């Protein structure tokens, strides 16, 4: 069991603390096949399996010469069965001098007593040149870094109540770097071990200090306080409280343990959106052979007398549309009312890149004959986009109605709520509790200014089943950092951003804590110490934000003294 062991000292009356629960510097020399049941310096016997003599100890290191002729996890392997401990927040395991000669597969980390299989593992996975995280079968291989042959690495695991923190030092990582944080595994009693499959590698000291290591975030918030962080945005609740949020126009509000945003908007950009002027309503053009008409069918609750009728042409999906000149990159709030009138037409609010060109964004206004309101937020992709209400079918003579169509530019600074932190290199997670279809919510990092932002990186659920990762350099210049993988949003899913220098990784985390790597990319935005949250619509809510330093400025170097 993990704890503090007092050892009597005959020279002094004050007892001294035991420094290690486990320490194995591999100072002995043991031939291949004979490692089983040999003693570590502290922590009992090395217990394992090596049926084909692949594991030896020599020159202060353990050495795996590969795996069996028919490779399988758990043979060769060893662990310290006599040194189990209860999972404890802050308990550290360090594997020093891990040096790979030939890449294949293997696990370095923690296992339940008596088990060394891949599905039992809770630790680092050596999978080809990729370093991954394996957590009791929850992750087949959550990729966190790339390793190089012949380079010595120190790997550290620090336990949480469930899951762990994972660190690396060596090679391109000149200081200890935080690679990942997991939250799934809750095994009660664990042993340190290595389960190889076919990798050829060596390693030096393996240690578990008796002293616990304090892992404190830079910022943490479960949103119980309006203006400052409460320090409770993660399970351990051990730091990151009392920081003041920067909110450019006070558009963010905390309520019910979550935070939402009602961004500031500019003047109305749609002409005759209420369809009251002209018959057919002026400023709207026909598209796809649609026949336009003004009809006495004001939308439910409206203040006018007329709406737009659109009847499909011969076999075309008719539409009414107008140009929408705004700088590309401008965020816009679109909304409108629609209803089905004749046939199976469903009115859909769409933005196209050009007249009749590619559909950039769309939201269905109605699927019934009742007037229904729809809303979406979108970033314009061209300088002159075309906004239209269009039929969802191409059945001739089908008809729909549209009314009170609106478009207003969102004020960029009000899309963000940020904190001033000490580093641009961060591991940041935020939970999106609820998301309105057709709108966006997520994370922003590396902002240069809260009041007048001109650079930053945003990662978000886009309300259409995707995760986006973009940087902006200038108020309207956006670049996708990688092609988003479709990942449908489910209530209380989280986004995780790992940003280290020019490298960025994005993970999706379910409400149950299972993580999936969404993509990796390279960013030109490497500075900026403002990190926060992002939302384009009042119906979205976020919760449980936490930010840790990656360690590029040496924040985790005290691990060297363990």
Brief characterization of the structure:
With 562 residues, the protein is mainly β. The chain has no helices and 47 strands. The protein is elongated.
Kindly describe this structure:
- There is one protein chain.
- This protein is mainly β and 562 residues long.
- Helices cover 0% and strands 49% of the residues.
- The protein is built from no helices and 47 strands.
- The strands form eight sheets. Strands 3, 6, 7, 10, 15, 16, 17, 19 and 20 form a nine-stranded antiparallel β-sheet that branches. Strands 4, 5, 8, 9, 11, 12, 13, 14 and 18 form a nine-stranded antiparallel β-sheet that branches. Strands 21, 24, 25, 38, 43, 44, 45 and 47 form an eight-stranded antiparallel β-sheet that branches.
- Strand 44 and strand 45 form a beta hairpin.
- It is elongated.
- Residues 1-17 have low confidence and may be disordered.
């Amino acid at each position: 069991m993990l704890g503090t062991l007092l050892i009597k000292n005959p020279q002094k009356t004050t007892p001294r603390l035991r420094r290690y629960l486990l320490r194995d510097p591999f100072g002995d020399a043991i031939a291949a096949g004979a490692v089983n049941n040999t003693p570590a310096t502290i922590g009992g016997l090395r217990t394992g399996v090596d049926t084909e003599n692949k594991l030896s100890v020599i020159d202060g290191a353990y050495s795996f010469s590969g795996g069996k002729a028919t490779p399988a996890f758990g043979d060769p392997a060893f662990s310290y069965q006599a040194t189990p401990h209860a999972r404890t927040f802050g308990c550290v395991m360090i594997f020093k001098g891990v040096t790979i000669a030939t890449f294949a597969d293997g696990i370095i980390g923690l296992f339940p007593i008596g088990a060394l299989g891949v599905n039992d593992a809770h630790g680092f996975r050596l999978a080809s040149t990729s370093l991954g995280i394996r957590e009791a079968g929850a992750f087949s291989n959550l990729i966190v870094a790339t390793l190089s042959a012949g380079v010595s690495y120190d790997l550290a695991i620090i336990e949480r109540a469930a899951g762990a923190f994972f660190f690396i030092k060596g090679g391109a990582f000149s200081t200890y770097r935080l690679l990942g944080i997991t939250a799934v595994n809750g095994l009660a009693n664990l042993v340190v071990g290595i389960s190889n499959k076919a990798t050829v590698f060596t390693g030096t000291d393996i240690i578990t200090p008796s002293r616990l290591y304090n892992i404190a975030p830079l910022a943490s918030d479960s949103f119980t306080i309006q203006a400052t962080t409460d320090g409770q945005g993660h399970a351990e609740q051990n730091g990151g409280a009392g920081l003041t949020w920067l909110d450019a126009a006070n558009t963010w509000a905390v309520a019910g343990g979550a935070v939402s945003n009602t961004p500031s908007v500019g003047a109305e950009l749609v002409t005759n959106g209420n369809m009251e002027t002209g018959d057919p309503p002026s400023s709207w053009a026909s598209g796809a052979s649609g026949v336009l008409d003004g009809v006495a069918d004001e939308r439910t609750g409206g203040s006018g007398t007329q709406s737009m009728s659109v009847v499909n042409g011969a076999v075309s999906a008719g539409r009414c549309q107008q140009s929408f000149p705004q700088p590309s990159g401008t965020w816009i709030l679109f909304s409108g009312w629609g209803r089905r009138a004749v046939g199976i037409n469903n009115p859909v609010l769409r933005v196209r890149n050009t007249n009749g060109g590619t559909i950039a964004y769309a939201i269905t206004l109605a699927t019934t004959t009742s007037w229904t309101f729809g809303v979406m937020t979108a970033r314009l992709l061209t300088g002159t986009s075309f906004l239209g209400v269009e039929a969802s079918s191409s059945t001739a003579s089908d008809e729909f109605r549209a009314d009170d169509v609106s478009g207003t530019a969102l004020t960029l600074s009000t899309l963000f709520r940020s904190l001033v932190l000490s580093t641009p290199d961060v591991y940041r997670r935020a939970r999106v509790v609820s998301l309105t279809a057709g709108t966006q919510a997520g994370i922003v990092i590396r902002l240069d200014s809260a009041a007048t932002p001109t650079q930053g990186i945003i990662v978000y659920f886009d309300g259409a089943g995707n995760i986006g990762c973009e940087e902006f350099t200038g108020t309207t210049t956006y670049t996708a950092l990688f092609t988003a993988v479709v990942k449908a949003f489910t209530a209380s899913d989280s986004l995780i951003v790992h940003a280290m220098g020019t490298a960025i990784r994005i993970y999706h985390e379910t409400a149950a804590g299972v993580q999936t790597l969404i993509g990796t990319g390279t960013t030109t935005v490497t500075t900026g110490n403002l990190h926060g949250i992002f939302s384009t619509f009042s119906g979205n809510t976020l919760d449980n934000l936490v930010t840790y330093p990656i360690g590029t400025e040496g924040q985790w170097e005290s691990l060297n003294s363990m």
